[in-house]
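Q: My labmate handed me this sequence with no annotations at all. I'd like to see what the chain might look like in three dimensions before we decide whether it's worth expressing. Could you predict it?
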Amino acid sequence: MNDEKQKIRVVRLSLIVSVILLGIKFTAYFSTHSNAILTDALESIVNVAAGAFALYSIWYASHPRDENHPYGHGKIEFFSAGFEGGLIFIAGIAIVINAVYAFFEPPILHSLDVGTILTAIAGGVNFFVGTYLKKSGEKNHSLLMVASGRHLISDTISSVGLVIGLIVVWLTDMFWLDSVMAIIFGVIILKTGYSLLKKSVTGLLDETDLQKVEFIIGELEKSRRDKWIDIHNLRVIKYGSRLHVDCHITLPWYDTLEAAHDEVNAVEECVRQNSGREIEFFIHADPCVMPSSCRVCLIKDCTHRKAEFQRKIEWNTENLLPDKKHGL
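A: Here is what I predict for the chain of 328 residues:
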């Protein structure tokens, strides 16, 4: 719960800063009438709207599991990331359309020195807040916070390019560059929005996260016991900052229920101790099947062996994910 409170504090701070930056960027726009600065200001509206929804989502995701939500409320983080991505995508389309129109009806630019300074200040603040948000999200395993942090950092990169472009326009009077920059930044914003939408959809559809699966397999391989004849049908689902892991483990058929329970607990512990996050396990224990299991079983003094040991099977994504016991 302390981690959840920390996430709420971080996102709330990010929202407050986004509101302040919104005011700064629109001040810069009304001072200059620059379309390029308008792109930055419009994206700040998205940041504020997304930040408000993110704050609600983090708060909602912190609720404990209940009868209606047995896996918790963490899935809302994927929805929130998709909401932010959708807003960013719409803003990108609006920015590109407005920039193209400006080629035919170019605005009169003025006070570019003031606009450049304000844009540079906003970009610097975005970088520090985005970095803090991203690191906090990685620490607390929050997709939403990481996505928001990366978005703010990408804003900073755009601001750097925007400041350079404004200086060029200011020094050369090549005012058409303003619209060119707006189109470029609009396309970058579209790409960012698409990326967030894609991550949201894959998360909501429980697409396999190979990085997390490979981490779990690596921990199982490092702590592997002889009695763990095989593990198969491995599935990892993410609910906010929590992981839900399903798998089947094949154990000696002659073990008592208590002994099998101890092995299952050992599997859970070997993953939990190095994960740094809350993990829920549903592990189904299967009895070994002779003689096929004997050929890959590492138990040396098994008195029930019906076939000679042939080789150790290295665990990987190819043989732990399918719903099939290992054998030769």
